[in-house]
Amino acid sequence: MSGSRAAGTVEGAQQVTDPVDGAPMQTTRTRTLPAPPEPRPAAPPAPPRPGFRWWMPGLALLVLAVALLARSAPSTGDTQWIVVGGAGWWTLTTLLHLPMAVILALLAGGLVERVGYFWCGRRPPVPGRLPALAPAVCVQLPMFNEHAVAARVIDAACALRWPAGRLTVQVLDDSTDPATRALVERACADAYARTGVPCTVLHRTDRRGYKAGALEAGRHRTDAELIAIFDADFVPPPDYLLRAVPHFYRPDGTPDHSLALVQAQWGHLNHDESALTRAQALWVDDHHTLQMSWRSARWRFVNFTGTAGVWRASAIRSVGGWRAASLVEDCELSFRHLFAGYRTTFVNHIVVPAELPATYAAYRSQQRRWTQGWVQLQRLHLPTLALRHRTRWPRRVHLLYHMCISWQWPAWAIWTALLPILILNDLWYGALGTAAGLGLYLLPATLWALTTGVLATLETRHTYPGRATPAALARRLTRVVPYVAVNAGMLPHQFSAFCEGLFGPLHTEFERTPKAGDGPKPRGGGGAARRPYVLAEVAFAAYQLACAAIFAARGLPLCALGATLLAGCVLTLTHLGGRARP
């Protein structure tokens, strides 16, 4: 299933005692890892029909939209084929607004989380008391060709404050670049010499399972009670473990075995670098500070974000270990813990800063993987969540919203393709007047974006160093503009990722997000594999520009402006996605 069956090698970065078998490990010693047992995978959904390609539904939507647009474009002078305001008009118009109803329902669900945060989630969870003998902690650092940031995260992991003899570091290095492998081994040796923290390197000879496979292989090489995980671009503060681990204990110092995960807030190392990083910083602040805080406090469940979290090792073992069943192996593991009855918690005042993707190519690659992976997760676990998981119905409804939030992308894609046709046929509520059109079609999304921007800006008290002056808050609030533009420009890209996740194969290549200073682009970052995405983006923009031209000819300047801006956002991101810097 994952890379858990793949054997590899362990190269010690210093002479220490192996935490599992007690054998001394020399700097140059190499040992072959035994293949750990692989958990039995769940039965995968039926494969797509032969000859069917994941991009075909998008192509069908485009062809249908173009055909309907061509049918609606000619102006005969009598467009009132149905009486505006009549019973038939209300019925047909309401039915055709079904995609917008889905969008409004998803926006309402998001608003419940963000506003609900002030009643449930704003107060951080109270940690327990550590026992007299601190638990053994293993810090895992999965990485792949992370030449620019590997040494930094190794240094930060070895600098974590924890009782002597109770901390080990595993560097799960799947790098194929010899120079990066040598850098990682040297960084581990230097960190051990400086801190005395045992730091071992796992080089696998087979990358099956990608990150999940590396984490599973490392898990079988430690007997630590708790496992902390950090991606290579994260820099955990020295007191991270001292603040996170007590949450696994009750006030009397006894372990809370029902708690499987403590997830920390993502911070930012480069949030002010560009419009792209500012937009991402707003998204992260909103998702973590508001959404995850509310979910944790209200429903006792958050999904692991792949990094900046501490897992109870026995909990991972009890649900079958890491699996590469989808591209979001962290979320897939989280939902298996949910079904097994475990709790997971989020602590927003523990902040771990990290690099935001600094290029549009890196950002698009990251978003594609996340959207595709979440849809794969639905294929694996949605029936269990909807039908078999035993919980109260309000919690089930929210968990379904949580798992299915990626359906916003097909809803928006269908709606932006359909709305111009409705406008040209007077089957939209703007036919009742300008105020009705602006209020219904622009106001909900505008209010949602402003609410998100304001709340995320005011509530990120722990994320940004220094005092939150009015000038700093005002500047941070302007992130709403690039945030909206980037999300609009990503629409056809995200729709393509959704379709690939729903109709494509479950087991696809894991594309890492390039970090600052990276040299070669990762495999799959362009070429034929991404051609359907670029074609979809160009076709979507061309469709919107055609709609804009028709609107202008019909004397609908506001509609023409909206379609033009949407096409411009898409083409701009498509162009910048092929460049090295934003």
TrEMBL record:
Q: How does it sit in the membrane?
A: Multi-pass membrane protein
- A Pfam family that this protein carries is Glyco_trans_2_3
Task: Name the domain of life this protein comes from.
Answer: Bacteria
Membrane-spanning regions, if any? 52-70, 90-112, 399-423, 435-458, 533-554, 560-578
* InterPro entries referenced in this protein's UniProt entry, alphabetically: Glyco_trans_2-like (IPR001173), Nucleotide-diphossugar_trans (IPR029044)
- Recite the UniProt keywords alphabetically: Membrane, Transferase, Transmembrane, Transmembrane helix
Question: Which GO molecular function terms does the record list?
Answer: glycosyltransferase activity
Annotated region (Disordered) at: 1-48
SUPFAM superfamilies xrefs: Nucleotide-diphospho-sugar transferases (SSF53448)
Q: Signal sequence span per UniProt?
A: none
Ranges of biased composition (kind: Pro residues): 34-48
Limits of the Glycosyltransferase 2-like domain: 227-443
Q: Where in the cell is it found?
A: Golgi apparatus membrane
UniProt xrefs under PANTHER family = GLUCOMANNAN 4-BETA-MANNOSYLTRANSFERASE 9, XYLOGLUCAN GLYCOSYLTRANSFERASE 2-RELATED
Protein name from the UniProt record: Glycosyltransferase 2-like domain-containing protein
List the source organism. Answer: Phytohabitans suffuscus
